[in-house]
């Protein structure tokens, strides 16, 4: 989503008090971002209305952290929009369970048929039979056979001369006889929705009475995918959507509107061309991804594991009695570097944004490389006690680190300021009851 939305989210997140104006501003950005992401206009309108009602209502205003509460509301509504809880795949009372795969040409039907068979066997221990009912292109049958070989799974095919309706029927009969749990029928697609295609699919549907009709749509096609889903659903009453090529889709607009427009859930998501790259669709995770919060959540998790309690305590006492050295600084920097972009991390650490604002103390990823080089060029003694630093030592360090004396000087100054500030912060700790975990 847009950078502007991210900005607004950041802004509102830290807010102790959220005004109606804030909520309006936030929902306006969300609205723009969703429209930009190619989400259906009606969907956006309803969505924004719901978020506004909830966000301006009691729920948020009485919360201790209204800012975060607003984000939570947005995330929950997004999750709801995409289907709430994760959905499962049907199991017929009497096997085989018949699954019909439909969709436009190139959407990923054949590939996804293979992926789904793989997933059914791997995750549910099922025995699927694949059926090649796309008879218009010889290559389509071959493609399914190749997948079958890769998976070591049988493919029922009758060449290109037979009627796809008969092929589907025969496949189901064979599955019954030979005790397969699932029949996955790969059907033909067209470049555009047309009557002939729909007629054929309806006939197959009538002939084999499928337990699931999965529409395969290409996430990259955005709003088009939603229109496609709408017409297939009207004609065939699909039972679920498999969204492919989500690995290439950065906008997620299709995912957002499909459920809202058709009422049918997205069941699985294709995340690549390989046969194991089909995942259960998790609306909540997708909502996080859309909001860009997934990254933040991972960062928080990382921050929590990287800075363990004991280390944090040690550090705190060092800060208190001002014995924090360049050694510690370097160690901290290593940890921080492992976590990701510095600015984001600093924003998550209580009190650290104050630090960022401090004059002369800047945290910029590029600069950190220099800082590290400078510290690494110091002797052990110099790292422990920077007061020994004289002009010739500084010159040596600058040379050793490929920087300049003025950069060395700047770092020394920054370090002193940081130490001062740490002392201040750890002194106020008792009063406020909220310590800063300093990575
Ligand atoms: P069909 O015409 O609907 O049967 O589509 P195909 O199964 O032949 O797939 C069309 C193309 O999309 C192939 O090159 C697939 O490898 C590719 N494809 C399918 N699913 C995915 C996916 O989830 N991610 C990516 N990156 N490519 C996919
Ligand atoms: Mg195909």
UniProtKB/TrEMBL annotation:
Localization annotation: Cytoplasm
GO terms, molecular function: 7S RNA binding; GTP binding; GTPase activity
CC annotations in GO: signal recognition particle
SUPFAM superfamilies reported in the protein's UniProt record: P-loop containing nucleoside triphosphate hydrolases, Signal peptide-binding domain
SMART domains: AAA, SRP54, SRP54_N
Binding residues annotated for GTP, in chain numbering: 103-110, 186-190, 244-247
Top EC group: hydrolase
Keywords (A to Z) from UniProt: Cytoplasm, GTP-binding, Hydrolase, Nucleotide-binding, Ribonucleoprotein, RNA-binding, Signal recognition particle
InterPro entries: AAA+_ATPase (IPR003593), P-loop_NTPase (IPR027417), Signal_recog_part_SRP54_M_sf (IPR036891), Signal_recog_particl_SRP54_hlx (IPR013822), Signal_recog_particle_SRP54_M (IPR004125), SRP (IPR004780), SRP54 (IPR022941), SRP54_GTPase_dom (IPR000897)
Record keyword Hydrolase present: yes
Domain (SRP54-type proteins GTP-binding): residue spans on this chain: 265-278
Pfam family, one: SRP54
Record-level GO BP terms: SRP-dependent cotranslational protein targeting to membrane
Region spans: Disordered: 381-404
Top-level taxon of origin: Bacteria
Catalytic activity: GTP + H2O = GDP + phosphate + H(+)
Primary residence: cytoplasm
Enzyme Commission number(s): 3.6.5.4
Record function comment: Involved in targeting and insertion of nascent membrane proteins into the cytoplasmic membrane. Binds to the hydrophobic signal sequence of the ribosome-nascent chain (RNC) as it emerges from the ribosomes. The SRP-RNC complex is then targeted to the cytoplasmic membrane where it interacts with the SRP receptor FtsY.
Family recorded in the similarity comment: Belongs to the GTP-binding SRP family. SRP54 subfamily.
UniProt note: domains: Composed of three domains: the N-terminal N domain, which is responsible for interactions with the ribosome, the central G domain, which binds GTP, and the C-terminal M domain, which binds the RNA and the signal sequence of the RNC.
Subunit-structure text: Part of the signal recognition particle protein translocation system, which is composed of SRP and FtsY.
Name of this protein: Signal recognition particle protein
Gene it is expressed from: ffh
């Amino acid at each position: 989503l847009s950078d502007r939305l991210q900005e607004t989210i950041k802004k509102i997140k830290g807010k102790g008090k959220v005004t109606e104006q804030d909520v309006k501003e936030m929902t306006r950005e969300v609205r723009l971002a969703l429209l930009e992401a190619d989400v259906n206009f009606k969907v956006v309108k309803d969505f924004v209305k719901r978020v506004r009602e909830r966000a301006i209502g009691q729920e948020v205003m009485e919360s201790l952290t209204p800012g975060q509460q607003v984000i939570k509301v947005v995330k929950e509504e997004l999750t709801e929009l995409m289907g709430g809880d994760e959905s499962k795949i049907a199991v017929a009372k009497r096997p085989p369970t018949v699954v019909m795969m439909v969709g436009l040409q190139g959407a990923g039907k054949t590939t996804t048929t293979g992926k789904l068979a793989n997933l059914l066997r791997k995750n549910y221990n099922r025995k699927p039979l694949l059926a090649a009912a796309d008879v218009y292109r010889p290559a389509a049958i071959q493609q399914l056979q190749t997948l079958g070989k890769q998976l070591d799974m049988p493919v029922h095919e009758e060449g290109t001369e037979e009627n796809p309706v008969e092929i589907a029927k025969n496949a189901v009969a064979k599955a019954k006889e030979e005790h397969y749990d699932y029949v996955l029928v790969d059907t033909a697609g067209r470049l555009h929705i047309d009557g002939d295609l729909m007629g054929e699919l309806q006939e197959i549907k009538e002939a084999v009475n499928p337990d699931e009709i999965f529409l395969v749509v290409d996430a990259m096609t955005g709003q088009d995918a939603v229109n496609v889903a709408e017409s297939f659903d009207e004609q065939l009453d699909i039972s679920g959507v498999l969204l492919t090529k989500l690995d290439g889709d950065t906008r997620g607009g299709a995912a957002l509107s499909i459920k809202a427009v058709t009422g049918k859930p997205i069941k699985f998501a294709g995340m690549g061309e390989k046969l194991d790259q089909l995942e259960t669709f998790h609306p909540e995770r997708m909502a996080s991804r859309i909001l860009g919060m997934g990254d933040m959540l991972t960062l928080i998790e990382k921050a929590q594991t990287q800075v363990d309690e004991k280390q944090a305590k040690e550090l705190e006492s060092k800060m208190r009695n001002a014995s924090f050295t360049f050694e510690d600084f370097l160690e901290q920097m290593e940890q921080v570097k492992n976590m990701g972009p510095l600015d984001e991390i600093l924003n998550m650490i209580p009190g650290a944004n104050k630090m960022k604002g401090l004059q002369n103390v800047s945290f910029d990823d590029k600069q950190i490389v220099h800082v590290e080089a400078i510290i690494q060029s110091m002797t052990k003694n110099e790292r422990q006690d920077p007061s020994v630093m004289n002009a010739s030592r500084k010159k040596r360090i600058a040379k050793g680190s490929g920087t300049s004396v003025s950069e060395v000087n700047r770092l020394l100054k920054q370090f002193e300021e940081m130490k001062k500030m740490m002392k201040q912060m750890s002194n106020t700790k008792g009063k406020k009851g909220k310590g800063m975990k300093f990575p």
